[in-house]
Every structure is written in structure tokens, then in C-alpha cells.
Write a structure and sequence with these properties.
single chain; 293 residues; alpha+beta; Ribosomal Protein S5, domain 2; two-stranded antiparallel ribbon; 61% helix
């Protein structure tokens, strides 16, 4: 089973007169890139929350956001009048020194300034019960996100199976051209030599050189390795152990190497067209593998 790195989870916990909301969203990344947004009163448990997120999500570009709001209208938020006065004084001084106009709407200007609003409860250290509620909300959000990742993982699994089957079917189409390819190459070389006037050649030596040349164009090993890589990709895809994204990426690179070698050795237009089609299917796989955990 594979998991997607893309997901979203949200959980809400009610604690006395407060509503604690935790939201976690994740995008693909080579490693864990975690950004945490917490109210000041919960900063003391940030490290614990980071540890829990890392254990639950392994990797991805993750953003954790926790908010806390009162639900009974007993908010302790207020406007910091002294801070507003200081801003107003400085703005007037700046206007005089720089010879620029004063604001036409003082309220709109001052209310946008930092620290104009103050919340006494936000600066108060949360108690153990409130911090426990935050942990529960974050853990529930992580469970929801992983459920989302599982659903997306099922879709990716079906997508990969479809593309691997398509590559395998295209690969089998090469067999119909492989049988006649050698004879075509031999006939083309013989025809080319016969067109050279007055040129004679040792047919035995020609056969020896032709055998050497044909061996260079043989793709039997590529056939075998490509089949093995396709089977290995599916085995890894259906593995019970999560976290197979990087491994699938490495296997897809090996699949691409064999397909490219076939294309360079094919020396035949029909086979090269099939190789292009296989590359197209593989590119779609590589794009989506980046989203696998």
C-alpha cells in the first residue's frame, strides 16, 4: 500500500470556553519540511508537536496551524491606545521631515499597525489541561490527514498499475519487429555494398562483421531487465510497508534506462515509435511518483 504526500486534516476540540482548531496540510517534498503556527501561549509545547508530526507523516512539506478562540463572548482582546498614540506621533513627525501628506483615514492606518490589538489571554501561559486539548486536536488532525493520504494513495496505485500494464503491452509489441529486424539490417547493408561499382568483398568476412554488428544491436538483455523492473515496480507498489516513494522513483529510473537503450539499439522506425510511446507512459509515472510517500 502506498500513501500520497498530499493531504489535509482538521480537528476541533472544545475546552471550557475555548475552541481549539488544528489544521494540517501536506505537499510533496524530498524530506520533512515543517512549518508550525501556534498562539504564544502554546509555544512551550511546539517541540513536542513537531516530534509528533514527524512521527506521523515521515516527510512532506507540512504546515501545522493551531488557533484558539473564545466561544462565550468573554474575549479579553482590547486596543492598545498607548501604542496607537506612539504610531500617530511618529507618523506626524515623518510627514514633517519627509514632506509627505498625512493619512486621510487615521483609523484605517493605525489599526493596521503591529501590536495595536492586544489579547491578555494570548500572552498567558496555558495550563496542562489546555495543552493536552491541543495535543488531542493535533493528533486528530494528523489522523484525518493520513486518512486523506490513504485515499489519494489508492488512486495513485490504480494509476501506476494502468501505466505499468501499458508499458508492458507496448514492450510485447516489439517482438513482432524483432524477428525481421536482423534480416532487414543485413539486406540493407548487402544492398548498399552491391551498389558500389567495381567493389568486391569477402563474403565470409562480411558475415563475421555482420554477426559482430548484430550482437551490438541485440536487445535480449534489455528485454529481460525491463520485464524484471516492471515486475519489481508492481511488487514494491503492493508492498505492505509504507514509505516506498523513493524506491519507486529509483525503479522508474531503471525502467527508463532500459527503454532508452532499446531505442538507441532498435535501428528501426517502427520500434522507435513504440519506444516513444513507452517513454510517454513512463514520464507520467515519474511525475506522480514524486507525490508518493
Amino acid at each position: 500500500m502506498i500513501l500520497s504526500m498530499t493531504g489535509f486534516g482538521k480537528a476541533v476540540k472544545l475546552f471550557k470556553n475555548k475552541k481549539i482548531t488544528a489544521e494540517v496540510k501536506s505537499l510533496n517534498s524530498k524530506q520533512l519540511d515543517l512549518n508550525v503556527k501556534l498562539p504564544q501561549c502554546f509555544r512551550s509545547i511546539e517541540l513536542e508537536l513537531r516530534t509528533n508530526v514527524a512521527k506521523a507523516l515521515a516527510r512532506g512539506k507540512v504546515e501545522l496551524s493551531v488557533t484558539c478562540e473564545t466561544i462565550d463572548g468573554s474575549s479579553t482582546a482590547s486596543i492598545n491606545m498607548e501604542t496607537m498614540r506612539q504610531y500617530m506621533t511618529q507618523i506626524r513627525q515623518m510627514s514633517k521631515e519627509l514632506d509627505i501628506d498625512l493619512p486621510t483615514d487615521w483609523f484605517a492606518t493605525l489599526l493596521r499597525m503591529p501590536d495595536v490589538f492586544k489579547n491578555e489571554s494570548a500572552n498567558t501561559e496555558a495550563n496542562a489541561e489546555e495543552m493536552a486539548a491541543v495535543h488531542e486536536a493535533v493528533n486528530d488532525a494528523l489522523v484525518a490527514l493520513n486518512d486523506f493520504r490513504t485515499q489519494e494513495g489508492r488512486k495513485l496505485e490504480a494509476f501506476f498499475e494502468e501505466k505499468i500494464v501499458a508499458i508492458s503491452q507496448l514492450h510485447q509489441e516489439i517482438d513482432q519487429y524483432e524477428a525481421t529486424r536482423v534480416e532487414r539490417i543485413k539486406a540493407r547493408m548487402t544492398d548498399g555494398l552491391s551498389k558500389i561499382e567495381g567493389f568486391d568483398f569477402d563474403k565470409n568476412r562480411f558475415e563475421q562483421e555482420l554477426i559482430y554488428y548484430i550482437e551490438k544491436l541485440d536487445i535480449t538483455e534489455e528485454h529481460i531487465r525491463l520485464n524484471n523492473h516492471l515486475d519489481y515496480f508492481l511488487d514494491t507498489l503492493h508492498s505492505a510497508q509504507p514509505g516506498q516513494g523513493k524506491k519507486l522513483g529509483f525503479i522508474s529510473q531503471e525502467i527508463g534506462r532500459e527503454i532508452n537503450t532499446m531505442g538507441s539499439k532498435s535501428n528501426q522506425a517502427e520500434m522507435q515509435k513504440i519506444v516513444v510511446k513507452m517513454k510517454d507512459q513512463l514520464e507520467q509515472i515519474k511525475e506522480q511518483v514524486l507525490n508518493v510517500l
